[in-house]
Design a protein that fits this description.
By secondary structure, the protein is an alpha+beta fold. It has three helices and five strands. Helix 1 packs across helix 2.
């Protein structure tokens, strides 16, 4: 069995609005072990986190297969690429969140040969579709 990378989308908390939907990467390795790779927290306290079990009390609402990883890309390389993906907590990054991080982490995984640009694009497209299925925010306007 080869390593598989998936993109997970979780229902938004405290309200299921698009901007609150949590996203993460899931790696299922050839030896049967797995990692959840994601950014947790809120601006300006986001941090990268690697978990060996589902860090969210609920199951994801979407499990999007991204790629089958070439044998040349090791678990250590996958974790290192994700851990080195920038976490943006600056004043100009107030709209940045875990959804942005997933896209940027997938770019880092493309750079190490884990997946293709096309696979990244397809995964991001599916992620956006799922995120946009969330409830519409009420902006208070009539």
């Amino acid at each position: 069995m080869s390593t598989q990378i998936s993109l997970l989308v979780y229902k938004g908390v405290p309200v299921d609005f698009s901007k609150y939907r949590h996203t993460a990467l899931h790696a299922l390795y050839s030896d049967g072990q797995y990692d959840w790779l994601h950014v947790v927290g809120a601006h300006p306290f986001f941090t990268f986190q690697k978990d060996s079990e589902n860090p969210i009390s609920e199951s994801p609402i979407a499990w999007i297969p991204v790629c089958t990883v070439p044998d040349s890309v090791t678990r250590a390389k996958i974790i290192a690429a994700c851990a080195s993906t920038s976490v943006r907590n600056g004043n100009r990054d107030r709209d940045w969140n875990c959804q942005n991080w997933v896209g940027e982490a997938l770019t880092e995984l493309v750079k190490i040969g884990c997946l293709t640009k096309e696979e990244r694009g397809a995964a991001i497209g599916k992620m956006v579709e799922i995120i946009l299925e969330a409830e519409l925010e009420d902006d208070g306007m009539f």
